[in-house]
Amino acid sequence: MPAATRAAGADFEEPVMAMPPEIDHAVVAALSQFRMATAEQLRVLHTPEAGPEQMRRRLRRLKDEGLVEDVVLPQAGRPRAWFPTGHTARIAATFPELKGVASPPPGDKSAARLRLGHILAVVRTHVAFVAGARAAEDECAPLDFLPEVYHRYGAGPAGAVIPDGLLHYGRTAADGRTPHRAFVEVDRGTMASEKPASKLIGHARFHDHHPIPAHLRRTSHAQGVLPARQQHYVVFPRLLFVLTGTGQAGFANRANDLEIATRTPYVARMLRTVAAGVAELEDLEADGAGADLWWSTADLDDGPAPWWELTGTRP
Question: Which contiguous run of DSSP H or E holds residue 18?
Fold first, then answer.
């Protein structure tokens, strides 16, 4: 369209692309699993070929039907974050793909506003993996990220590890498809720099945890009882730390804290077989989550590599 026509055409709208009705189902499922997302995040997940206004129009209609609510973000242009209502949560609980994984909605607008920073950063991370997989012709679907998977390894509130997400990813190569899993932890730089390192130690304690006390593991009562991790995972997932909003100095400090944490006995033992890496979210969005962007927490001097090539071995 010529510039003059665009300037004069105040009512100009992007062409409307017909979307199948199952997109409503997909959008409701994503919001129910992740608790909150922007229209742009939902567009990239479900309708990357469509323009942004079409997803916003769809969300406004779902709001009119009482299925979603929205809250204005503190950013230029007044973008909105969308979240499911309690009615939607009850509907989504019947979706087969959400069995056991649907998250409780954030509540009213005040609760949503107070929680949106971290939730949206986690969704940004998953969107980067989905978009990167799509570009590389790998497999990572909109729901291939399970938020806050809970694993207990000890008593009390501190005796559990709850990663921000469990990522499922299928890497396609000339010799076939290789499935990968990874625990993903997202840090927006709002916590103390030692917090990611403490999460690394928590994962290592879960990796080391056995439901049978050490002095009973050789008895007949303990035969056939697997370590806690093997009751959930044949292969323990990689550990991926995604940092955003920290700046270069903040990223370096947190990466160094992670490397220092690898010297503790729990972590050193885990890293003999489990890979752990750290990267910046802005780099994932710019270059794709599968690019050479991931620094091994076991040895930052190794240089960046794709996350599925991190070996995790440590002397």
Answer: none
